[in-house]
Amino acid sequence: MRATESHPQVAILTPVFNGERFLDETMRCVQASDYPNLVHVVLDNASTDRTAEIIARYGGGRVPIVTRRNPATIPLCDNLNAVAAMAPATAKYVRLLCADDLIAPTAISLMVEVAERSDDIGVVGCLCADIGNLGSELDPDIDVFPGPAVVRAYLRRETMVLSGTHLLFRKAVFDARHPPYDATMSSCDADCAIRVSMRGSFGFVHEVLATFRHHEDSHSATVATVNGDHLFEWLLLLDRYGPLVMSRGEYRDCRGLFRRYLLRRSLLPLFRNGNPRLLALQMKRLAEIDDAVGPLDFAAALSEWLYFAVSGQRHRVGAPRKSLPRGPEKPICP
Predict the structure, then answer these.
(1) Which of 9, 46, 165, 310, CA to CA, is 20 to 30 A from 30?
(2) Residue 125 above 60 pLDDT?
(3) What secondary structure does DSSP assign to 15-55, as a single string?
(4) What is the 3 state secondary structure string of 61-114?
(5) Single pTM value for the model
(6) pLDDT of 24-41, one tens digit each?
(7) CA distance linking residue 271 with residue 18, whole number of Å
(8) Contact yes or no for 324/133 (Cβ under 8 A)
(9) Residue 18 and residue 49 in contact, taking contact as beta carbons nearer than 8 Å
(10) Which residues pair with 102 in a beta bridge?
C-alpha cells in the first residue's frame, strides 16, 4: 500500500521505561503494519536497561521513528503527555501502544477506515486478546455508536470498552485539552477516552486487532492490586462524567451501588489476612472528597453482598456480564 491522501498520517505513541523484555516485539509489530502512512513516536523514560539499544535498532526501518530520551524518569501519566506532545502536527490520528503490547498488521488500516467515515468520530476501539469484555458486548452489527451512550454504559459497568489503551484518537479532539492526560489520576487513559468520546461518536472494529499483556510489572497490575486506585478512581469518573450522561436518580443509584462494592472490596484484605491498610486508604480517600464512611455504610454494603449472593445477582456490580473470548490461538503479530 502506498501513502496517499486517502491514508492520513497516524502517529503511534510508545512511552517506555526499562522495556527490554517486550519492546523489541512491540516495535516489530509497528514495522509490520500494512498502513502506508505511519510514524512511530517512542519516548524513553530514562531507562537503565537495553531499551535505548532496541530503539536504535529500528532506525531506518519502513516506518520512520521519532525518538527522545528523558533526562530523568518522570511519572507515567506525565510521560504519556510528553510522548503525546511529540506527535507530529501532520498526524491526523494518534494511537497509544504501550511498550509491552502488540497490534495486528491490519490494526491501523481497519481502525482508520472506521474513523474516516465521519469527522464526528473522535475515537475508535477494537477487540483485544487476553483481556475481558473490551467490546465483545457491543452490537456486532453496529460500528459507530453515540459517544455519550458508550460513556453511560461504561460508567454503569455494562462495558469496559473505554478501559485500556488500544484506541485510535482523532488528534484534533485528543489535543483539545492540554495536556490530554490528567496526571492526577492513575487511570488517566480511561479519563482521556471518556472525555474524547463525550465530544462525538465512538467507532469500533469487531475484530481482534491487539494483544494486551498482563504481567507483574505492568502499570495496570500495580493500579489494580496494590492500592486499589482503579476502584476509587472509578468513583471519581462517576462524579466527573455521570451527571452528564445519566439522570439524577440513575447517577445516585449507580454511585451508591459502586460505593458499596468499593467498601466490600476494601474489607477483603482485612477479612483474609488481617491487613487493614487498603481499608484505611480508601476511607481516607473518601473523606478527602467529603464522602466519609460510617458503620451504617459498611452494614449496607455487607447486607447487599449477602442479598446478591443469595439471589444470584453478583453480576450487578464489580464485573461486567460478558467476557471477551481469548482471541486467536496464534500470535496476531508476526
Answers:
(1) 46
(2) yes
(3) EESS-TTTHHHHHHHHHT---SSEEEEEEE-S-SSSHHHHH
(4) CCCCEEEEECCCCCCHHHHHHHHHHCCCCCCCEEEECCCCCEECCCHHHHHHHH
(5) 0.88
(6) 999 999 999 999 999 999
(7) 36
(8) yes
(9) yes
(10) 211
